[in-house]
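input
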Amino acid sequence: MTEKTIVENVNHPGHTERVDSAKYYAIRNLMLQALPKGPPGMTAAQIKQALLPNVPQDLFPEGKALGWWAKTVQLDLEAKGLVQRAATRPLTFFGTE
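output
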C-alpha cells in the first residue's frame, strides 16, 4: 500500500482527495522550483514543459500522467496559498514564496 497525501482544490473549498505521496511531492517540489516568484508567471503548458526534463522516470515513465499531476498539485498549492493565478488569458501561475 502506498503512502497517501491529502490534497485540496482551490475551485472546490472543503473538498479533499487522497493521492500518492511520492508522485505528489515529486511534482510539488519541481513546480515550486520552476515557478517564478510573482507575475507574469507561467501557463499550464509552460509549467508542464518545465517539469518534464526533471520528472522522475520511475514515477512518470515518459511523462505519463504528468499533465494530470501538474494540475492537481497546482490546484492544491493555490488552495494552500503557495501559488497564485494571474487574471490573464491564458491563465498564468506564479509562486508566492
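quick obs: Residues 30 and 54 are 8 Å apart (CA to CA).
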